[in-house]
Amino acid sequence: MDLLFILFFPLVVALVALINKNYSKESALIGSAITFFYTAALIAKFHPDSSTQFLVNYPWMYAFGINFKAGVDGINILLILLTNALIPLIILASYRHKYGNPSAFYALVLFMQTGLLIVFTALDGFLFYVGWEAALIPVYFICALWGGENRIRVNLKFFVYTIFGSLIMLIAIVYLYLQTPTHTFDIAAFYNLTLSGTEQSWIFLAFFLAFAIKMPIFPFHTWQPDTYTEAPTAGTMLLSGIMLKMGTYGAIRWLIPVAPLGFVQWGKWALVLAIIGIVYASIIAFRQKDIKRLIAYSSIAHVGLIAAGIFSWNVESLQGALIQMLNHGINVFGLFFVADIIIRRLKTRNLDELGGIAKNAPKFAIGFLIVLLGTVALPITNGFIGEFLLLLGVYQYNIWAAAVAGLTIILGAVYMLRMYQKAMFGPSNELTLKFTDLDGTERSIFMVVGALIIIIGIYPQPLLHLSDAAVTNLVQTVNAKIQSVKF
Amino acid sequence: MSDQVWINLVWLVPLFPLVGFIINGLGRNVIPKSVVGFIGSATVFLSFAVSIAIFSELSSSPVKAFEIHLFDWIQAGSLTIPLSFLVDPLSSLMLLIITGIGFLIHVYSTAYMHDDAGFAKFFAYLNLFVFFMLLLVLGSNYIVMFIGWEGVGLCSYLLIGFWFTNINYASAAKKAFVMNRIGDLGFLIAVFVIFQTFGSVEFAKVFPAAANMVSGNGTLLLITLLLFVGATGKSAQIPLFTWLPDAMAGPTPVSALIHAATMVTAGIYMIARSNILFTLSPVTMDVVAVIGLATAILAALIALTQTDIKKVLAYSTVSQLGYMFLGLGVGAYTGAFFHVMTHAFFKALLFLGAGSVIHGVSNEQDMRLMGGLKKKMPTTFITMMIGTIAISGLPPFSGFFSKDEILAHAYEHNKALWVVGVIGAMFTAFYMFRMMFLTFYGSFRGTHEQEHHIHESPKAMTIPLVVLAILSAVGGVIGLPEIFGGHHWLSRFLNPVLEKSNALTENIPLSHSTEYLLMAVSVAGALVAAIIAYSKYVKKAHVPVEDFGPRNAFARLSYNKFYVDEIYDAIIRKPLDWLSGAFYKFIEKSGIDAFVNSLGSGAMEAGRTFRLFQTGNIGFYIFMMVIGIVALLVYGFYKI
């Protein structure tokens, strides 16, 4: 029941926000805060072993072998935490915006929250798919209705891209369903299937396409910079902070364990694409003038490293991937919040028009700096823990892969410090001269984000511990499955 | 173990400056300047006091290595990284250098930075730097060392860019960070190889295991080369040295503390710490020696013609670091570390002296516009002269002993290294005396207004100069060699750390007569260089025309730093910039995106049909969604 509450309470809040038109943002904030505290209590009750806990399993559409089966384990617990921690922050960060029809806006955000949580907790293929679409539709509307000038064109691309990916995934899910002896969508049954190498190969490619688009991995990424740029800030935060983790999480939960032989066949190519993406996106980020677009490309690079870690498939790299999903969510939220503050005050996204902000807004400069340090993975920030484990894991797979992926350490510093310098350093100009420092709400958001970045960086052990047993178990299970076929 | 009270409290040493950082950082707008300066200096002094206690406990203890475990930092799979500290002769000496010189520089800064608007911010950063530097040397494994390693890089970035409204300073800061990051990637991959090879990153596990490996082992070669890449970044060696001269954009105390005495010697510390790995990799040792010597010469050549007083000292630092690497490369670990210590004394002194000069002449840094300061700034003059004699390797000051030890080992290793090393030492003497003569001799060449303002610096600045001058003068006694009746205390003290390497290095001691001869040659060389400088810059009583240009071909090369920055710009930065544009334009937009859009136009048609459902009422959509989900749920459960 604990889990059911967390899954569906956001829907209740959404309805409250929708009805309570005059206090929609307050309702949304309080409601999402309740969800967060409930989640924290749930995590405190979680036993860090490899079992699935807080399991809910109701027969749903019995005739089709569809169950409402969801649970919490070491693989998804950090993502549940991320989702429910970030949503209240995103709502708070939207406070200063005068969105038209705010009740609908906040209701959509909360609606999406339920969709995301279903994706992360689903242990039934059909439920997973329902969650996948339920998370997409609200964010599509958020971007289409509150986005920038080109929102319709850009959104259509985003929508078609992801719908295309998810339909192919649906075919794969249905195929798996048909292969199960009892005709069920239960993930355990999917894991137990013994499909031929060719079948697994196709399954792998189908799932991979959906997840690769969602993350996104090079060359399936071209919807992302446009969408991130055109979406309203809250939409961008939802997409980059939480939604893209559907792809990386999906790869860990649904892609590799379901089609291990497909992974043996295609995994190294997926890894190569991920690593190309790191370097490619970083290099493009060098010269971006649009601050949101720059962050978008940096996100492709960082997610590329997470993906590379997943496809390296060992305990260190997966532990790194899981904690880095959380970290990336926090950091990219922080970066887009920085961008939002600049854009809201100065009405420009063009870095060339900025400069000298640090002088007028020292508090903002500190907040920005801490987020930046987390992003460039400086030790004792959260980013270092993730990137260190990821690169170590990739290294154990292949030293050259690690050497190329490791370039992110250098390239990330180049484009991030360039952005910081262009915006913050140098003399102020007419535009930036009147830049006001952070207000109370903004300061508290930076405090939360900064505290998370540093606390996770100094003492990540409690978080790593949550997923340790589950990751070890998952890696062993999949490797055993691969070995058993090979010999 | 109860005797080791202070050793067990070693975490206090980094804690004090961290507390100072937090207090001054948070209270930067409310705490008065005098209190800020007191907190900043006092915290480092407390660390210094604890460091002395630790040092004396360690000296009298029969056990020479203590590990103090704080907590497990990262644990994943078979990897465990504890946050723990190692107290041994090497780290205890580094503690003394960092906190001792750090304290003096904090005191100096209270006066030097007094009128700066960012006074509290400056002290907060400086304390943070000391904290990270202490972590770097205290870590009992490569990862804790790496925290410090990157942490000091961050502080370096913040302090170089301290006056960030000047865009050139901000760029210098960025350059330092990025070039350091290139080295850091090498360090990081080295750590991965170490973990895979030894199953641990703990010094206590890695070094004993490595000691059993054969010399020339390929894995060790890889590890040591990668670690050395890391060292070239942090310690400004070829090819990653160009950030350090630019780093002079930071306030002068920063140049003294970070970019001369402590941070830039981290690479030498790291190699000395990992000595067994390097001793067993003769190829790497040769690389280290050659790169070190090449850097020493190149930087010395550049220093010959620089006109900015801080630039001279910056290139001098790069050059002296090169000598330290030469020492490491020929197996003179003690000698290299000896030079780290003496260099910390005299280079901190010289930078602080330069700061005093700059302070005295109203922020002028061009030596051509100085001159004749000897009488008006006597303390600064005398202390800097001591520093100059020390760095030039003239006896009996400290630099003579440490440089001589490195050169003697180089001679044993390969006579050519020695010859080039001595030539470099001559350059050193020349550019240092040139700097002194231009600054302090002759008559003042600046404006009248500047001349009117020339004054000796306040006590808070001159006392640190005097202390450092004394250390620069007598610091050599810690490594007094046998031929001067000494027992080389430093060598014996460091022996527990270097034992295994020393046993492996074949040591054919030089005969006393050879040793005297080598010394005589290098001292004579330095003297000749000093005399040439005297005849060029003092006797003629005016600045030689070639220092204003037009310069001859060599001077032009030297003055323009051999165009290294321009070369890097042309072969790295510009192509990357071009690549960035090309990727974006040709692959991203005209390639992938165009392809996707052509696929998408078909879907557009389908999209038109969609529109029929768009009534524009969002509430309606959401309502429909909720209804849909609920209907789906209800339908499912109802069917049961």
UniProtKB/TrEMBL annotation, chain A:
NADH:ubiquinone oxidoreductase chain 4 N-terminal domain ranges (all copies): 14-118
One GO cellular component term noted in the UniProt record for this chain: membrane
Membrane topology annotation: Multi-pass membrane protein
Compartment(s): Endomembrane system; Membrane
Gene Ontology annotations of biological process type: ATP synthesis coupled electron transport; electron transport coupled proton transport
Residue ranges of every copy of the NADH:quinone oxidoreductase/Mrp antiporter transmembrane domain listed in the record: 124-408
E.C. code: 1.6.5.-
NCBIfam families named in the record: NDH_I_M (TIGR01972)
Family according to the record: Belongs to the complex I subunit 4 family.
Protein name: NADH-quinone oxidoreductase subunit M
Species this chain originates from: Hufsiella arboris
Phylogenetic classification of the source organism: Bacteria, Pseudomonadati, Bacteroidota, Sphingobacteriia, Sphingobacteriales
Automatic annotation (TrEMBL), chain B:
Transmembrane segment boundaries: 6-23, 35-55, 90-110, 122-145, 151-170, 182-201, 213-233, 254-272, 284-305, 312-330, 336-358, 379-397, 417-441, 462-484, 516-534, 618-638
Membrane topology of the entry: Multi-pass membrane protein
Every NADH:quinone oxidoreductase/Mrp antiporter transmembrane domain range: 141-428
One of the Pfam families matching this protein, by short name: Proton_antipo_M
Keyword tags: Membrane, Transmembrane, Transmembrane helix
InterPro entries, per the entry: NADHpl_OxRdtase_5_subgr (IPR018393), ND/Mrp_TM (IPR001750), NU5C-like (IPR003945), Proton_antipo_N (IPR001516)
Protein name: NADH-quinone oxidoreductase subunit L
Gene source species: Hufsiella arboris
